[in-house]
Amino acid sequence: MPASRSDKRKVEQYARTLLDAAKTEGRENADLVQWRHAVKFSPEVLEVLTSLQNESDPALISKVYTQLQSLVAKDDSTVMVTVTTAVEMDDELREKVLAKAHELFNAAIYLVERIDPNILGGIIIEGKGRRYDASVRAQLATVRTALDSTFLGGEV
Question: Which of 13, 63, 81, 118 has the smallest set of CB atoms within 10 Å of its CB?
Fold first, then answer.
C-alpha cells in the first residue's frame, strides 16, 4: 500500500529534523549512512540524502538544509521549535514548553529536544528565527555585564 501524503510529509519532516540535529552537532554525514535503511522515505528523499552523503561537503548540506527550512516555512503551518536544556525534560515540562511555544509562535509545534550541559540549567527555545534564552549561562553573562558596568568597566 503506498504511503499517504501525510505519512510522506511526516517522514520528510523527520529527515529535516535529523539534518538539523546532525548539522548543529557537527556530524552531518554520520547520520546519513543510517538513513539509507529507512524504507519509509520517498525515493526523492533517499536520493537527496544519498547525494549529500556522497558529496561529503558540509557546506552543501547547510545549503540544502536552509532551502528545506525555507520550503517548510512557506508550505507548512507547523513550526519546528528547538528546545535546549541541560538535562532531559520530563513529560510535565515538555507539555509546558509545548504550550509556551504554541503561545509564542501561534502555530502547531514540532518539538526538537537537545541536551547541552554547557548551558548549566534553564532553557533555550528557538524557532522561526527567534531565540529565547533563559539559560543559567545567559543569566550569569547578564549579571557579569551589569557588574562590569557598575564598577565603571572594571574586571569582576
Answer: 118
